[in-house]
Amino acid sequence: MSSIIVACKTIHNEIEKAIAETQVTHPVLWIESGLHNWPDKLRAKLQEQISSIDNVEYIIMAFGYCGNSLLGVQSPNAKLVIPRVDDCISLLLGSYQKRQQLSAEMGTYFLTKGWMEYENNILKEYERCVVRYGQKRAEHVMKLMLENYKRVVLIDTGAYNLDDCLGRSCNFACMLGLQHQVVPGSLELLKKLFTGPWDDEFLVVPPGEALTFDHFRTDLSITQTNTNFGFSS
Amino acid sequence: MAISHSLITSAVSRLQETKALELVREAMARDQDRFVIAEEVRAGLEAVGEIYNQGNYFLADLIMAAEIFMEVQELVFGAETPVEPGPPQIIIGTVETDIHDIGKNITIATMRSCGLRVLDLGVNVPPRVFLKSIQDTRAPILCLSGLISQSYDTMKKTVRLLDRDSLRPATTVIIGGLVNEEVRKYTGADRWVKDCAVGTALCKEILSSNNRSCQMTGS
Fold first, then answer.
1. Which of A70, B12, B34, B39 is deepest in the core (most CB within 10 A)?
2. Which of A65, A107, A145 is the closest to B60 by Cβ?
3. Helical packing angle, B34-53 and B102-113, nearest 10°
4. For A84-98, A147-161, B31-45, which range has the lowest pLDDT when averaged over its residues?
5. Which chain A residues have any C-beta within 8 angstroms of a chain B C-beta?
6. Which CATH superfamily is domain B2-77 in?
């Protein structure tokens, strides 16, 4: 069974650790970071890369639903394997359920080292604003942006040195009057994605079949609780 | 006059707050029509939205543009509002499970600048609250905003709840945020928009089309 992993550069620390721990030998095709805010661009990029793969049986997508980014994506030759999560935050917390639980507690802004390094995250946006608009204006804009948030959570995935980003993350939360918390992550879902079994936590889509909204539907009357990400039938 | 106005639009689109406000003050000192000034600023805000869509501005820049816009509104109209008094024409809110409201707030500012009467229900709004608001106000347009995928289910629940009400045929439901045609079909909404200028134009079109129907039926 030949497979390739398609993964977002933003979570490369975690992908590499999960690969090392599972000892899988699948090659990884990295997708550039920074497309998170533009789902249409991310979709186009994913499709372009997937279409160029023709010599494997499975394409393992280390991506979540990511704001409709996966809609319409298809592989002409391989089966697509996709975790049933909303986005990479759930992947790094180990489950969609854990993400829901934390978000239900209070409005939470999640960070990891990868997010602080690669994506146009809130810290980078703040630093850019200070340069462009000055300290006072930048703080005001940030407060408006995070008006409904109560907490910054730094996910300790175990794949990077926490001390590298703890100070920055803490200072930012403090400046905005938000709580700051370090929450342990889990790579178990990522590892299961790489090794299988691909049970109901994953979608396996045949070659030539485009991903639609229906692939992510869940019959909530059967499952009762929404353990996997999906839309009600 | 035209040069001054294009400078205002340009200053707003470049997010030059001080310069934009200075140009607005100068235009007011020259007794220029305040609605024309407001329109020039609105055009600047629209340009900022386009630059954002191209990936060259970021979220904070959108907020900054909205801030400049609101400062100008205050400067030009003061306590007055360009909106005529009356019951709301549009009910808007971020649906339950979601707290993102930047796009919604910018949309509201754009709508109000175009004279539309908008009632903002805030964030994390449950379906029954939307329904009650429609029942209380009989607003012809309901805008449901959501940025996270989980918000689609709440949008769907809200539309279903509204479907059971006799006011549904008279209400146009528009979804906005991270949405597309598939999401619209899933939720049962009537229309979808991703852009505040497009959403405002759509609401104006719906309201004017409703008015024409009312005139034709004599109601």
1. B12
2. A145
3. 150
4. B31-45
5. 37-39, 41, 65, 67-68, 71, 86, 100, 107, 120, 125-126, 128-129, 132-133, 137-138, 140-142, 144-145, 147-149, 212-213, 229, 231-232
6. Methionine synthase domain (1.10.1240.10)
